Amino acid sequence: MWQGRLQVRILFVLALCFTFAASSVATKKPPLKPVNINTANSEELQQVPGIGPATADKILQMRKSYGTFKSVDDLLSIKGIGKKRLEKMRKYLTVNKSAGVNKIARPAVSASPPKKPDPSGAVSPAVEAEDPPH
Length: 134
What we know:
The chain contains five helices and two strands. By secondary structure, the chain is mostly helical. Strands 1-2 form a two-stranded parallel ribbon. The protein has two domains: 1-29; 31-100, Orthogonal Bundle (DNA polymerase, domain 1). The protein is elongated.
């Protein structure tokens, strides 16, 4: 008889544990602004509803192996992320390029002052040599 009561108590405790575990997952607060999957670390990725430690690690591994993501849809290549799951996460994700990626190449600045044009309108040989071939 005491074994039956023990089993009921164990089941009751397990049910409570599952209830609290489910409610803690359901109350996960999403990030205030979209998380950049090209620059985020594991903790930042885990702020997104639907991304836990294992999925965050998969995202980081894919980024390390293949480089930056071109779009959020690239996450579909990760095992465990399907269309439905991605659609739930999409509003919390972005692929903005980092500042270092979008740098524009600028020509080197010369330390010497610019040359004054020849009053006759002729171009000096030094200026012609600086022009790149067309």
